[in-house]
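As a warm-up, study this chain.
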Amino acid sequence: MGDFLELARARWSVRSFSSRQIEPEKLDLILKAGQIAPTAVNYQPQKIYVLQSPEALSKIRAITKSTYNAPTVLLVCYDARLSWKSPFVEGYDCGEMDASIVCTHMMLEA
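Now compare it with the structure written out below.
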């Protein structure tokens, strides 16, 4: 096993992508990392959409500039009907936090 602090130090942000599509094996590993990410009460409310078609990419780019023209975009959402709600704090829904943890796992795998 590798050292987490070394991994954390070595990570970087990418905002410029080639037009070459990600290899399916690498995409599968990234998606697997998101799938095994912990969520509140392990409810797993996340939905991960792999956007690669010109139509899907056009739609996401119409609402955000944060795709940086990548040929694959992962859209991470959560189903509010499935996310854990705190019985102690009114209105507290863990779905957003769960989706953020899923994103973090996928970014670290990438």
